[in-house]
């Protein structure tokens, strides 16, 4: 599977940091010709170190919670310490081991699209977790699967970014987006850590208006909870009556 190497890279990096062997961070390469880093200390952050959008999402979490793509488990641990019944889900074995070492009580080692056994009151998709959908054409299928995991009055809390700002502005102040036939928020990434490189994988960034349209056509209400400082936002999805 294309994601396997990526998952191993993330898991290995998290395990190194947990063991006090942090010598480098994860380097990412994207189809937008951007080279960036995932800073490992940031994945182990406390509530006070989280962006306000993440803090707001955790404050809104209720009932039985599923933290999708939990990584090192920082969001799970905060909710667990608040007394919520929260489960941490990730497809990375390394992430699961780190969560266990950090004290996470309930863990699910699975890809989200393969998981179908329980229902929850809150699904968390933080750090642009909606990116797991990969492409805009697959977002409807992704949302329909999430619907099967929600209790009737459940909610999905997700943050994402409108990456239109990464494109050049034209003379009228608008943004010039190349006509590639694809949604501009579809990005192909490759990760590298300690000489190991992943296979390319797709990741989706979605602007709020587009998200709202896709949600409506798939049986969800979509509410803008709050905006961040730089084209990012927190949205709340609930089942349409």
UniProtKB/TrEMBL annotation:
Superkingdom field: Bacteria
Coiled-coil residues: none
InterPro entries associated with the record: Methyltransf_25, SAM-dependent_MTases_sf
Residue ranges constituting the Methyltransferase domain according to the UniProt record: 65-154
Protein name: Methyltransferase domain-containing protein
Source organism of this protein record: Flagellimonas maritima
């Amino acid at each position: 599977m294309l994601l396997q190497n990526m998952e191993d890279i993330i898991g290995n990096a998290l395990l190194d940091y947990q063991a006090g062997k942090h010598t480098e961070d994860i380097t990412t390469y994207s189809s937008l010709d951007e080279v960036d880093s995932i800073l490992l200390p940031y994945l182990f952050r406390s509530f006070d170190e989280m962006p306000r959008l993440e803090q707001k999402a955790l404050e809104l979490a209720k009932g039985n919670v599923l933290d999708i793509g939990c990584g090192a488990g920082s969001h799970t641990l905060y909710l667990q310490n608040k007394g919520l019944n929260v489960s941490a889900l990730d497809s990375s074995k390394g992430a699961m081991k780190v969560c266990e070492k950090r004290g996470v009580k309930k863990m699910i080692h699975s890809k989200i699209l393969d998981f179908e056994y329980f229902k929850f009151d809150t699904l968390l998709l933080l750090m642009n977790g909606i990116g797991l959908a990969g492409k805009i054409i697959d977002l409807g299928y992704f949302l329909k699967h999430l619907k099967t995991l929600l209790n009737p009055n459940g909610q999905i809390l997700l943050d994402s970014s409108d990456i239109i700002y990464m494109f050049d502005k034209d003379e009228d102040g608008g943004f010039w987006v190349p006509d590639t036939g694809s949604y501009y928020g579809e990005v192909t990434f490759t990760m590298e850590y300690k000489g190991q490189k992943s296979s390319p994988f797709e990741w989706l960034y979605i602007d709020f208006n587009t998200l709202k349209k896709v949600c409506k056509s798939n049986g969800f209400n979509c509410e803008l909870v709050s905006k961040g400082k730089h084209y990012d936002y927190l949205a709340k999805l609930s089942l349409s009556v």
